[in-house]
Structure formats: C-alpha cells, structure tokens
Amino acid sequence: MRKYVQRHLNLGSYVPRSMCLPDSKPYCSVFGWKDYVLGEDLLFSHRTTYYTKSTFDQVPREHDYWELVIPVAGAVDYVCGDGLIPFEDASVVWFSPGKQHTALLREDGKYERYVFYFRAGAFSDRNSTLLRFAARSEDFSLRLSEESRTALLRLLEGLRRECEGECNLLLCRALAVQIFALIDRCGNERASSVALPAPVVAIRRYIDEHFRSIGSVAELAKKFFYTREHLTRLFKRYYNISVSAYVIRCRLLVGARALEEGASVTRAAYDCGFDSLSAFTCAFRKEYGISPKEYSKLHKERSPKE
C-alpha cells in the first residue's frame, strides 16, 4: 500500500516520522489514528473520531484497491453508487476498486470503525485466491448476527492489540486472514440498501459523464430546472461535497490516470477539462499534495506492482 501511504505523506496527513518515537512502527495520522502497513498489499487501522456535521469531511472517493469498513459506533450511513446503506444495517461494508463511495453523518458524536485497505494479492498465493471474499468484485454490506459480530469484534480487538504491541507481521496477517475468513462464512447475511433519490442520482450521473464540459453550477442547475442554491443543497446533502468541487475531483481523477499512463502534464490538463495549465496544477497540488510533474515522476519510478 505504498501508493496510499505516499499520497498521505505528500498531503501532510501523517505526523512526520521525526516526531514519532524512535521505534514507532505505524504511520500516525494527524487525525489521531494509526495506520499499520502489514505488507505490500494490506493496511489496517482502528479509527475513532469525534465529528460534528460541520467537521465531517468524508467526500466521494474511489481508488484502485479494496476497502473494508467495520463500524463499531456512530450514526453514519454509507453511500455507494446509487444506494445508501443505513448504519443500523452496516455490520460490514465492502467497496471494490474503482467504485465511488462516501459516508454520511446523521448525528454529531463519536465515529469508531476498523478499516482495511488491500489489493488482490493480500490473501492469495501464486495459484489461487485463498478466500472467496477476496475475489468478490461487487460492493456489498452484511448485517451480522449478534454471535458473528461479537466474534468479529473479538478478532479485530486482538489484531489491534498486536499491532500496538509487538506488531509481529506474521501474527498480524494470520489474524487478518481469520477476520476475513469469518466474514467469508457470513456472506449470506446481506444487509439491505435504500435507493438514493432519483434526482440526486441523475445529477451525479450527468456530472460523471459531462464533467469536462460543464461550465458552471448555474448552467447545470438550469438543465435540471433547479435554482443554483437548491441544486447545491440537494447534492451536498448526499455527497458531502459541493457540485463545483465534485466536478473538479472528477477532472483530477482522470488527469491523474492520464499522468500514470504517460501523458504529459499539458495533455492531461486539457484532456480532463481544465482550461489552463495553472488551474490544473493548483487544483492537483491541493488534492494530491504534489505537482502533476512530481506525480508523473513518482509513478514512473514506482515498481510495476504499485
């Protein structure tokens, strides 16, 4: 998970290693949690954050690895694609690579969860996937029985203690396999999801398809027969982000992929919808923590696996 760690180092999301204890093993987030890299393909974290609706900063995101979230406490719903998973039903939530998702805070308070980020190789040998769970391509959520949930939380707590203690890599990965195996066995305990309002889905789909050519929020609002203010409120209610910021994120995602594929900075900027190189560079640095040129160079130096 070097790419994930590198991006957050670039953004200043981790406490500088020089400020950590000499024998510190985790990456310490400025938000108060610790990320444990348990090998090339697996990252584990136990996160507890106190949020209000004004400070909740989860925005739509997608990435090229799997994400598994096990909520423990907090009134948080999950949005994935065109559906919403109520927090009452979300014992386990799984997001596949390339699938956009976010979370919605219902009430101010503590949000506690366990998080895994991993790639396909995390639970595979050379010939096969060791767990059916790790071979899933669709997004889903589980509503576990009380017995299964208790067993899952016991294993997660054991992994957390080991990570914060000796952090024996082999033992940590063995515990992670047990956690995923338990979830694998509970695969038929699916949770229900609720469809997002049709107008919200239609707006997001339109932006996803036309983000390069959208000139203004007012222009978009007119197309859907809304006022600019109503469109902005409606969209932000379900995605925690303004329409204009979402358009920029769509452009940057495409721009970053173009750079990874070897495009020049200028070509990437104009192909993803920016009308000036300076605007692209400024927005890119804000999102990724480095300039497009530096991003392109880092990707070229990165191993083929990442």
Structure description:
The chain has 306 residues and is an alpha+beta fold. The chain has 2 domains: 2-194, Jelly Rolls; 197-301, Arc Repressor Mutant, subunit A (Orthogonal Bundle). 41% of the residues lie in helices and 18% in strands. It has 10 helices and 11 strands. It has helices at 2-10, 146-164, 169-185, 198-210, 217-223, 228-239, 243-260, 265-271, 277-288, 292-301, and strands at 27-28, 34-37, 42-51, 66-73, 76-80, 83-85, 92-95, 101-105, 109-118, 140-142, 194-195. The strands form 2 sheets. It has a 7-stranded antiparallel sheet with strand order 1-2-3-9-4-7-10, covered by helices on one side. Strand 5 (76-80) and strand 6 (83-85) form a beta hairpin. Helix 7 (243-260) crosses helix 9 (277-288). It is globular. The N and C termini lie close together (8 Å). Mean pLDDT is 87; it is low at 18-24.
Percent range for helical residues? 40-55%
- Alpha-beta content class: alpha+beta
Give the total of beta strands.
11
Question: How large is the count of helical segments?
Answer: 10
The CATH homologous superfamily of the largest domain corresponds to Jelly Rolls
Largest sheet: 7 strands, antiparallel
The number of domains: 2
Order of helices and strands: HEEEEEEEEEEHHEHHHHHHH
CATH top level class name of the largest domain: Mainly Beta
Average predicted local confidence, pLDDT: 87
Distance between the termini: 8 Å
CATH architectural category of the largest domain = Sandwich
Using the coordinates shown, work out and report the CATH topology of the largest domain.
Jelly Rolls
> What form results from the Cα inertia axes?
globular
Uncertain ranges: 18-24
In what range is the share of β-strand residues? 15-25%
